[in-house]
Amino acid sequence: MTTAEPLPVLTRKDFVSDQEVRWCPGCGDYAILAQTQKLMPELNIPREKIVFISGIGCSSRLPYYMNTYGFHSIHGRAPTIATGLKSSRPDLSVWVITGDGDGLSIGGNHLIHVLRRNVDLVIVLFNNRIYGLTKGQYSPTSEQGKITKTSPLGSLDYPVNACSLALGANATFVARSIATDTQHLVSTLERAHQHKGASFVEVFQNCNVYNDGAFDEFTDKAVRPDRTIAVEHGQPLIFGKERNRGLRLNGVTPEVVDLGNGITESDLLVHDETLEDPTIASILARMEYPEFPVPLGVLRAFQKPTYDELMEDQVQEAIAKQGEGDLEALFAEGDTWVVD
Amino acid sequence: MTARSDDVRELERVTIRFAGDSGDGSQLAGQQFTNTAAIFGNDVSTMPDYPAEIRAPAGSLPGVSSFQVSFSSHEIYTPGDSPDTLVAMNPAALKTNLPDLPKGATIVANSDEFTEANLHKADYESNPLEDNSLAGYRVIPVPITSMNARALKNSGLSNTQIDRSKNMFALGLMFWLYERSLEPTLRWIETKFTKNPTVAEANATTLKAGFYFGETAELFPVHYRVPKANLAPGHYRNITGNEATALGFLAASKLSGRPLFYASYPITPATDILSELARFKRFGVKTLQAEDELAAIGAAIGAAFGGSLGLTGTSGPGLALKSEAIGLAVMTELPVVIISVQRSGPSTGMPTKNEQADLLQAMFGRNGESPVAIVAPATPSECFDMAIEAFRIALRHMVPTILLSDGYLGAGSEPWRIPSFDDLPKFEVKFATDPESFQPYARDEETLARPWAIPGTPGLEHRIGGLEKSDGAGTVSYTAENHEIMVHHRAEKVARIANDIPDLEVVGNPEGELLVLGWGSTYGAITSAVQRARADGLSVSAAHLRHMNPFPKNLGDVLSRFERVLIPEMNLGQLRMLIRARYLVDAVGLNRVTGRPLKIAEIVEKISGLVRRKVSVA
Ligand code: SF4
To answer: How many residue pairs from chains A and B have C-beta atoms closer than 8 A?
Structure first.
């Protein structure tokens, strides 16, 4: 950013609003809020240029706690409001905060379209696999058979995989992180911000009241190295406490292999986040525990022109070609006549 | 036949309906006739009628499309109750349009198409041109298809292309019958087909052939002349309501100095507004074809939050989908404008047919106490003014505003006196900029509007949203007293718009036995009917509402000066319900939901039944 005057140095505190945070004690949302507030001063953007837009749900309260511009909208519609804002004001840094219910259920359609249009936004989806605000009903990411008050015999729904859906919509940036790993989270959010285009970040977030431990079986410190896999651009896909296991592709089927016994690093899939074709990223995104280690990190970061940029270009091109619009000339377009 | 074809008879007003298969080009012929009459100096009014099916089978009854144009030597307000002349390009067109024809009307029928197969498709058992069933009409069979083919046999066009030009032959014939110049259409052909001189040539040839046929054939004992109308001096063009709406929004953008952002999902009969505005990129307009109605209004709200003129457009079903988001705009007090071009409902209803049945939806179709401003144009050209008015109100009062147009206004056309930019109402936009004591929900003393504080303004960072906000500070608040205050603020803010809009004007005596009160596209029929009734000496006046919420301040007073109030509407009495509830006036209704415009004659009849006294009209 080139500004004549140096920006005032901001700190995390400058991004903390005067509103009392009202999530349940112990909720994973706190960590995401803290990392977001911590990241903001690093972005070197004037505070007034930052806007957080959310829908409805526990996660969607976040804008109230950010001392930036904010819009806590209606259920599922944050991507639409963000699209209108960013398309009309490309100078702003616009963030969408959503959850598994808001973004994948009631607002699923908008999520698909904001991603395929590649509007230059950061979309952070807090996935806690439950409806928290309405006190614990199964969500579109809940595992089948989930027992809740609205599914006393177990939910029948097959769950959706958020990153896979995003890639299906041809999202140009797709990443996954977990709220408990603050380092990973803040660097993932930073990458998402740096990407020009629609950046989608799914964050596994624990709802300790209605779905406690939803991700423990693979995110617990003790098992995490064996049950998750860090995807890093240009690196072979290796995981395991001993870093002795890897992932290779057999046709379009991923395979977990043990290194050694003739299998070396060179047999493994090397992660390339920049591929235009999202197929391999989708294969990775669809890997779920226990069959596979759960991938964390940036699955895809492919650059192409953004919607807001293209929209602005069309305006500028029309002006360059036809000259700035003359309203009175337009009024008198076509056949006219004079009555004296 | 002994009469010579150069006998000319002068008429005050003529209504022609071009009807044919959707592929027959009746819309185009009608539009060209309209333009030509308008350029000549007639007042004109038009009504297109499209088939509901996109491509109904050729020659079938549901496949008939028509275009009615009325042109006159005096001011007219409607496209006419019934046509004087019907051009029927095939049997189906005759069958579907005959019920609208008064006895004595002229029927120009393309006799070539009255074949057994086509008669069968139109459910005719015998040929109406021959079986005397059209006695009482003046039937003029003209072999349009074959004469057009003969005129173009050396044109170099394929048979299909030749056949497609037969509307031009029919149009040429009508130009002769009503003594109109071919020039404007010839000019239009030239520009339209610059890239295809063969087609241009062919169209011009057959247009002229139709004209000369009229001159020489002696089928018509006389032809007619409708002298120029006495329109107010000025520079005119013909304009449809949807075109006027788009231009009005563009003007609002220029007047306010803010860029226009239009987000919409295609829906009949509002789509034209999107395609119009999409052409205006050089004016800085951004258009977004959204994934659905919800996204369209969401994007408009986002744009309004950012300081643009946030605009979305739709029709009834889409307005229903937008309800929740309109509520959000009420709560966040953002100046979004929603244009709804009404059509017949409920549900999908009859997309190409007209109705005014979304007034109560616009008024009340949201959860909670959720007032918005509503304006409604009365004529196609007035859509321009009301589009500007919608934004003027929205911006000054920081309130979502609904512009209620309808399909009849949107697709209908009339001459528009082209305004000069300087004559348009100015309105300024003031953004909040001062962080000192800034409060997002502070209120303007006069209007109660909250400040428009857009992202990018240092020191004004704040959060808005759908949760109830505390008075002034704008933080989330669930307290009982605050909610009551805020509900009243929002209601009072809308009520105070009444201080800022013109009084309702009464046409005719300011008091008397009967007031006919209307809104929206019934204006033409009501005005004509009241004129007619007054000419008959009946004590009746008319008034037409353009501001539906709030109503003009003097409405109660106007109503109280009449013994009775008649409210004709294309619904079951929606304005009447509001008027009765608000003013305790025992208004009576004239309610039609036929999908077609109200007829002047039926309003006159209703008036005659209600008015007892005759007054002498000076
Ligand atoms: S209900 Fe769950 S997700 Fe919501 S605030 Fe409480 S712990 Fe967090």
So the answer is: 213
Angle of the A78-88 helix axis to the A307-322 helix axis, nearest 10: 30
B246 and B164 part of one domain: no
Residue A89 to residue B308, Cβ atoms within 8 A: yes
Return the residue matching tokens 């173009």: B152
Q: ipTM higher than 0.90?
A: yes
Q: Is residue A284 part of a domain?
A: no
CA-nearest residue of chain B to A338?
Answer: B235
In a domain, B517, yes or no: yes
Chain A nearest-CA distance from B234, in A, is 5
Strand partners, B609: none
Output the domain CATH number for residue B332: 3.40.50.970
Q: How many domains does chain B have?
A: 3
A3 has a pLDDT exceeding 80: no
Q: A78: domain range?
A: 12-214+305-312
Residue B378 belongs to what domain range? 237-423
B35 in the same domain as B140: yes
Is the Cβ–Cβ distance between A15 and A47 less than 8 Å?
yes
Residue type, B615: V
Q: How far is the CA of A31 from the centre of ligand 1 (A)?
A: 12
Q: Per the domain annotation, does B349 fall within a domain?
A: yes
Whether B346 is in a domain gets the answer yes
Residue B439: phi, psi to the nearest 5?
Answer: -135, 125
Buried b (16+ CB within 10 A) or exposed e, A189-214: bebbbebbbbbbbbbbbbbbbbbeeb
- pLDDT at residue B4 above 50? no
Ligand 1 centroid to A197 CA: how many Å? 30
Q: Which of B225, B254, B280 is the last residue of a domain?
A: B225
What pLDDT, on the 0 to 100 scale, is given for residue B215? 87
Torsion angle defined by CA atoms of residues B174, B175, B177 and B181, in that order, rounded to the nearest 10 degrees: 180
Taking only the tens place, the pLDDT of each residue in A213-222 is 999 999 999 9
Question: Are the C-beta atoms of A72 and B331 separated by less than 8 Å?
Answer: no
**A328 in contact with chain B, both atoms CB, cutoff 8 A:** yes
- How many C-beta atoms lie closer than 10 Å to residue B611's C-beta? 21
Distance CA B24, CA B64 (A): 9
Would A259 be classed as within a structural domain?
Answer: no
Same domain, yes or no, for B152 and B256? no
| Mutant choice from A51, A62, A77, A316 vs B, greatest count of B C-beta within 10 A | A77
Angle among Cα B567, B570, B572 to the nearest 5 degrees reads 75
Number of domains in chain A: 1
Phi (first) and psi of residue A175, to 5 degrees: -145, 160
Task: Report whether pLDDT(B13) > 90.
Answer: yes
In a domain, A106, yes or no: yes
The verdict on the CB of residue A74 being under 6 Å from ligand 1 is no
Query: In terms of C-beta density within 10 A (0-12 exposed, 13-18 middle, 19 or more buried), how is residue B489 classed?
Result: middle
Give the span between the Cα atoms of B406 and B412, in whole angstroms: 10
CA-closest candidate to residue B76, choices B46, B47, B45: B45
Q: Do B237 and A82 touch (CB under 8 A)?
A: no
Question: Lowest-confidence range among A266-275, B213-222, B236-245, B509-518?
Answer: B213-222
Is residue B338 situated within a structural domain?
yes
Confidence of residue B3 (pLDDT cuts 50, 70, 90): very low
Last residue of a domain, one of B389, B423, B457: B423
Contact A337 B233 (CB under 8 A): no
Whether the CB of A67 is below 8 Å from some CB of chain B: the reply is yes
pLDDT digit string (tens) for B116-172?
Answer: 999 999 999 999 999 999 999 999 999 999 999 999 999 999 999 999 999 999 999
- Residue A320: inside a domain: no
CATH number for the domain spanning A38: value is 3.40.50.970
